[in-house]
Amino acid sequence: MTRAAARLKRFVAPAALAVVLGACTVGSEGGSFSQQIGLATPPPDEYAVVANRELQIPSTYELRPPSPGAPSLVEAQPGEQARAALFAPAESGAAGPSAGESALLAAAGATQTDPNIRQTVAAEQETYVAENTRFGLTSIAGYKIPGPEDEEALDADEEARRLAEEGVLSPIAPDAPPAKK
Q1: Alpha carbon distances (Å) from 138 to 1, 29, 72, 129, 180
Q2: pLDDT means per 10 residues in the chain (181 residues)?
Q3: Does the pTM exceed 0.85?
């Protein structure tokens, strides 16, 4: 073997291994191969998209510096926009929810909402997954790992009857009907 062939062999084997391992990890992460390697961008999250208002030029250029952490004075907060869309349509000029809307919200228990519900649900989901999966895995190479919810409980008496009907002798179930010959 020539020196050039030996050098090529030392380069090709690790490069091929890297490509194979890279392909394995791309398949496990989800998304297409081109998204995983950065050639295509994923679509935007429809829940994270917020419409921005048009840029407004102030009448005077005497601007005060923004305060860190303070809400924007120009753009409305998404929660305020949602309330305005639900309870105060521009055409009706209503200032808040009507008496019927307030009664409906109170009856549904929507007035006592938990502001940290997303964090609570995420924590409960993590606990459930940790308790009901094996090492946090639900599948390996596309095959589902059976969990506790997949186990089927057998009725011992019914199974003994079925085995006896098929002629299988079972010393464990003495109350089973005798096998037919």
Answers
A1: 48, 13, 43, 9, 45
A2: 75 78 61 73 75 76 79 75 70 67 86 86 87 68 73 81 85 57 53
A3: no
